[in-house]
């Protein structure tokens, strides 16, 4: 697949994305005190806005209602922001989008309650406009997301994690919100038609996104990913490249690397050896192939629709997600 | 007002409350792994079930739909449980309902994500049944609750907290969910009629509840409240008795106690003196009078309806809330 920039993908919905950024800014400015302070910190800090982008592109492929599409895109970005606030607290992360995380800039308590505030703001905005079908999609999605994160905690340091368990976990943790964004786009732009196709597009995109993300943690350029490689493993996350490499290793080797994966603190200076082992046992190529296959599935789905600026951008998004600078 | 037991209040809806307990148990038993483990810990641990009780009594005063009322009562208890999980983490509490808190028995990360899981379960259950008006009420309520908690954090250690700020904060933090429970009861049992009356009943009840709770922290029997008195102040919470006592003190005394309230760690052995000062300056009686006034308002509202077993229980609930062992 060709290398695509995020700007190319977002080109057809640039005005709408700017409106989303404006709406997010207005939300924090309408508050006072600590809420406003934290709100400005998390809502005006940038980010790639991938979920709003997909929602807006899907809606634009049909005949979008611009006001509703912008509102819905704002709402999915709020839900995503809320999960980031809680996730960063769970992981003890210090940086997010180049800024200190809420738990770092404020504290854990502020993170917990502000996450709840942002989540519930998303639902309150939809309830205010009585957008019940959107509430239904997002209520289901946020529940699946928290389930995925509980499963992720359950799987931590579990060397025997299967590919199936991994896929089920990232499906909830990541893919479900992309799926919901595209489903909402279909609802708003296509009058509810083609919901299933766009749901599958979003889910496939999300799975490709997460597998690519997990791969980047292993082999990415540290200057680009902005953190040490191997961070996931240090946090106990046994991702697809490791699962595949373990599966392909002879028993003795499997035992040795299982031990290291279960006790990542003992890897210490041996990180290059770990990466080379994953490569040698086909873990990197397997994960890349899986990500590409999901991205290809997403592209196929879009190819079933009449070509337009937006449909081309959605196909580009699928290429971008598996081959991005970050 | 006469002294009332919780059992008396709950008598008319005892079968429904048992069904709620059963439904909560079924929810955790339908899960696996860590979710089930934490779910059983938080959902089968008892609690007074005050919010379900009010919802069920209000619904029963009209002609309730028993299945829907039980579902809605289960949902408000889920929302309440989610807030407890997050609050205990924020406050670093160690015990809840006589059991270790989730943050103690598991850890902070599990608390954060499990709180999100329980919150979103509540909305997912309503969305499944397409109970949109209930979703609307609860989306608004949960948003107001997180707003109240953000304000509470903002007011921590702020000696100049006014009564108005305090009331606004407990309105969001506590009263809103009682209000929502009663509004839902009215919707289910009275076909949407008398919504405003029951909302005001719930709000008045909730304000009385929180003021009584805050008073108990100051003057309650430690054996009964199950924790050290003065806990709120140690956590930086400047509640109504202190606000009133400060307002009634001459300047020099106000300065002295302001200093202690702002730096509660310096109170040390001087707790009895603090309690005596609050009493002498009328802080205790003022807070008690305010709680009683809100409880009386709640009773007045119920008195406007035809008398029944359930209406008597609601009036009893208002008496109970300001004069309870806990």
Account of the protein in words:
Two copies of one chain form a homodimer. By secondary structure, chain A is mainly α. The first copy, chain A, has one domain (6-322): Farnesyl Diphosphate Synthase. Helix content of chain A is 75%, strand content 1%. Chain A has helices at residues 6-10, 14-29, 33-43, 50-61, 66-91, 102-105, 108-128, 132-155, 163-189, 195-219, 222-225, 231-234, 240-248, 251-262, 271-280, 283-303, 309-322, and strands spanning 95-96, 99-100. In chain A, strands 1-2 form a two-stranded antiparallel sheet. The first copy, chain A, is globular and about 60 Å long. Chain A starts with 5 loop residues before the first helix and ends with a helix. In chain A, 54% of the residues are buried. The interface between A and B is large, with 39 and 39 residues.
The strands making up the biggest β-sheet of chain A line up spatially as 1-2
Large-scale geometry of chain A = globular
Report how far the terminal alpha carbons of chain A are from each other: 16 Å
Counted beta strands of chain A: 2
H/E element order of chain A: HHHHHEEHHHHHHHHHHHH
Largest β sheet strand count, sense and barrel closure of chain A: 2 strands, antiparallel
Task: Give the class of chain A from helix and strand content and strand pairing.
Answer: mainly alpha
Radius of gyration from the alpha-carbon trace of chain A, in angstroms: 20 Å
Number of helices of chain A: 17
């Amino acid at each position: 697949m060709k290398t695509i920039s995020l700007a190319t993908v977002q080109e057809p919905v640039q005005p709408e994305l700017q409106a989303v950024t404006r709406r997010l800014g207005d939300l924090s400015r309408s508050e006072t005190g600590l809420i406003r302070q934290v709100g400005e910190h998390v809502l005006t800090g940038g980010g790639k806005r991938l979920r709003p982008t997909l929602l807006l592109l899907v809606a634009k492929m049909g005949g979008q209602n611009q006001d509703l599409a912008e509102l819905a895109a704002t709402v999915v970005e709020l839900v995503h922001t809320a999960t980031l606030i809680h996730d960063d607290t769970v992981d003890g992360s210090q940086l997010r989008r180049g800024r200190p995380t809420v738990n770092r800039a404020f504290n854990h308590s502020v993170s917990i309650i502000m996450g709840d505030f942002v989540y519930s703001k998303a639902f309150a905005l939809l309830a205010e406009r009585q957008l019940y079908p959107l509430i239904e999609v997002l209520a289901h999605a946020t529940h699946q997301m928290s389930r995925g994160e509980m499963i992720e905690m359950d799987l931590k340091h579990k060397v025997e994690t299967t590919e199936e368990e991994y896929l089920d976990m990232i499906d909830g943790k990541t893919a479900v919100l992309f799926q919901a964004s595209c489903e909402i786009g279909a609802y708003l732009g296509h009058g509810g038609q083609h919901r299933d196709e766009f749901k599958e597009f979003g889910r496939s995109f999300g799975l490709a996104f997460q597998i690519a993300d997990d791969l980047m943690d292993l082999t990415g350029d540290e200057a680009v990913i902005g953190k040490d490689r191997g961070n996931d493993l240090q946090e106990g996350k046994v991702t697809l490249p490791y699962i595949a490499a373990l599966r392909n290793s002879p028993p003795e080797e499997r035992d040795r690397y299982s031990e290291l994966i279960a006790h990542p603190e003992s890897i210490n200076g041996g990180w290059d050896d770990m990466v080379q082992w994953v490569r040698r046992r086909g873990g990197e190529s397997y994960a890349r192939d899986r990500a590409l296959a999901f991205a290809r599935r997403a592209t196929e789905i879009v190819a079933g629709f009449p070509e337009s600026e937006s449909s081309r951008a959605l196909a580009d998004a699928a290429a971008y997600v598996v081959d991005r600078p970050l």
